[in-house]
Design a protein that fits this description.
Layout (H helix, E strand, L loop, with lengths): L11 H6 L5 E3 L8 H9 L3 E5 L5 H14 L5 E4 L6 H10 L4 E4 L5 H9 L3 E6 L2 H9 L5 E4 L5 E2 L5 H11 L4 E4 L5 H10 L3 E4 L1 H4 L8 H9 L5 E4 L7 E4 L2 H8 L3 H18 L3 H13 L5 H6 L3 H9 L24 H23 L6
Parallel strand pairs: 1-2, 1-9, 2-3, 3-4, 4-5, 5-6, 6-8, 8-9
Antiparallel strand pairs: 7-11, 10-11
Helix pairs in contact: 2-3, 3-4, 8-16
This protein binds flavin mononucleotide (FMN).
The site of flavin mononucleotide has 28 residues, from helix 9.
Amino acid sequence: MSDSGTPVLETPFTRLVGVRHPLVQTGMGWVAGPRLVSATANAGALGILASATMTVEQLKGAVREVKSRTDAPFGVNLRADAGDARERVRIIIDEGVKVASFALAPSKELIAELKDAGVVVIPSIGAKRHAEKVAAWGADAVIVQGGEGGGHTGDVATTVLLPQVVDAVDIPVVAAGGFHDGRGLVAALAYGAAGVAMGTRFLLTSDSTVPDAVKAKYLEASVKDVTVTTAVDGLPHRMLRSELVQTLERSGRARALAQAVVRAASFKKISGLSWPQMVRDGLAMKHGKSLSWSQVLLAANTPMLLKASMVDGRTDLGVMASGQVAGLIEDLPSCAELVARVMAEAEAALGELHALHTLPTPG
Ligand SMILES: Cc1cc2nc3c(=O)[nH]c(=O)nc-3n(C[C@H](O)[C@H](O)[C@H](O)COP(=O)(O)O)c2cc1C
């Protein structure tokens, strides 16, 4: 038990990172900002800032804001393939951030640079061979995301991928994709994981800055309302089946959209407009109903579509990335309430398992 009465489960992950609970709030673009991350950290779990949707300067400001709100460890998620990845790594090192999380496998050199500076490196992976690769390169742990998970996702379920990865590597494995409660944590631990990482569940907290109208859409959703589509950016992407997704799928727009994005990129070069400016313009024009969907998308790309929902509150227009687990979630606890609840549920589930185990054998 901790001082607050919340049960504590020590695992190789909690020891590695120095958090109280084996729970991670993942780096979700436009969602995992300083407020959510510091609330998670103060609740004793690992919060991860999403930096791919921030400029380098914004990242520095966000890291400092988290540090002003908590003394607990936290992480930063970045894209290893970003042109400015090195600058971002510098910020992580200079600001003393505890954990570097990667959406795509980081290079061996980047892992070494971070580890030399004492940063714990935890890439997210979606396949066994990626886990083996980053483990061989010195990653300290991996987050393995199964197909149930929100955002860009694979097609192997967590229940299959997790034991496969646990058996393949010797570093701590954190399970992601489909988790929202203490039963799930215990199940993951039974598979050999050292903790669980949750995206959708942390998006649906009172500490998350996602607009209420958007949270309401998630809360309303059944498991069947969460779909995987390639219609937005050509990659399998799990999200709520919104008006936008339906329109794109109905009209078979995958190719048109891909072309639209390519055209938008060249338009951006010619016009010198920034993506935010282009999207603002695109959305404004759509509002006046003078543009088709594909024309709006001319002026956008996926992060901007995510922003339209997660920041601007557009439930009609944006991408609402979501795990299937949205269909099971019905409330908006604070991060502190959520973490305490999950740990209490885990303790209860472990107790029930223990009771099963100690039943006298019949006969
Ligand atoms: C709204 C949203 C945005 C996301 N953005 C990112 C991102 O920018 N980078 C990333 O690596 N993963 C991103 N993800 C995936 C999550 O980090 C996480 O792996 C996933 O949500 C776990 O599955 P769950 O939603 O079932 O908990 C996002 C997920 C959601 C729901």
